[in-house]
Amino acid sequence: MSPIIQAVFFSADLFSRIKNGLKNEKVLETLILSTAAVVHTIRIQRDTGFGLEFENHLLTSLDSCKPETPECSQLYLRSLKNLKSKSTVPKLFEIVEKSESRVAVVAMKALHAMPKSFFDPKTHRPILVRLINQLGKKHDSSTRTLAIDILLRDAPTKEEVRGLLALQLKSSGPLHAEVGTFLWNRLHEFMTTNPSLRTYVDEIMKEEGLRTYHHLSPRGLSTSFSRTFTSNPSGNTSFSNAIEMTGKILKRSSFDVYLHSDDSFIHPLSVRNFTISIMIRS
After folding, report:
1. What is the DSSP string of 3-61?
2. pTM for this structure?
3. Fewer CB near the last or first residue (10 Å), C or N of the chain?
4. Phi and psi, residue 263, nearest 5°
């Protein structure tokens, strides 16, 4: 029996145990998260439509969570992150826009884990811009910095870059300090691999008159950078490090390793730290 066939039977057994329920909440949580990861692997290797009943179960359970129990919503959102289903993207955006900060950040982390092909430029990119620029509901800074990552990794347009730079570099005060500093560092990181983005930033800086110390001096402690480990004709290995601060306190950090070749890349390692207790809309 092939490993994928074994995984199919294994995931079916896990799902049956989930539906029957378990008294131990930690074991049940582990089962749900593990089943989502197994279903995702099977979909990649065998059948993209596999596990629809399980996916619907996660969405139904998420809808049944009450506002006063955010831990319930967070569990099923983490499961959707492991599942990585394109059909759940609209639901995740809805939760980000309507839910309180703790739940919204977990939903945005689930979106951050999705492949960029899952996002519709006409529907989802305007939402990301709105979240970053605080147009409407105020959002936690981690929601905004994760949205910055999603937007920048998928070839932003010149007008999108203009909107981000104009707001973050022209705004004063602590409201945008850390997010603006993170954005500026993230832009420089993505510019190293995206010549079009570099051209956009250079042109916008000249057109908007932003090449001054007042606009470019760092106002926060957040940062982001990438470095190359190895480089050879067959490909290269690099890492990306991002740190988000609140005042002088570490709020979120990530360390990612990538293996690149001419036509593809692999993301073998990701280490993330998130200080859940710090939820400040900055």
Report:
1. HHHHHHHHHHHHHHHHHH--S-HHHHHHHHHHHHHHHHHHHHHT-TTTTHHHHHHHHHH
2. 0.86
3. N
4. -120, 10
Q: How does DSSP assign 161-221, residue by residue? A: HHHHHHHHHH--STTTHHHHHHHHHHHHHHHTT-HHHHHHHHHHHHHTT--SHHHHS--SS
Q: Are 104 and 143 in contact (CB under 8 A)?
A: yes
Sign of the torsion formed by the C-alpha atoms of 43, 47, 51 and 52? positive
Contact present, 214 and 204 (Cβ < 8 Å): no
Tens of pLDDT along 32-59? Answer: 999 999 999 898 887 667 889 999 999 9
Which token pair is 207? Answer: 């057109």
Q: CB under 8 Å, gap of 24 or more: what pairs does 235-243 form?
A: 235/259, 235/260, 235/261, 235/262, 236/260, 240/189, 242/145, 242/149, 242/182, 242/186
Residue that is written with structure tokens 């009450």 in the block: 66
- Considering only CA atoms, which of 164, 93, 171 is closest in space to residue 132? 164
User: Which tens digits make up the pLDDT trace of 215-248?
Assistant: 777 778 888 888 888 888 777 888 888 888 887 7
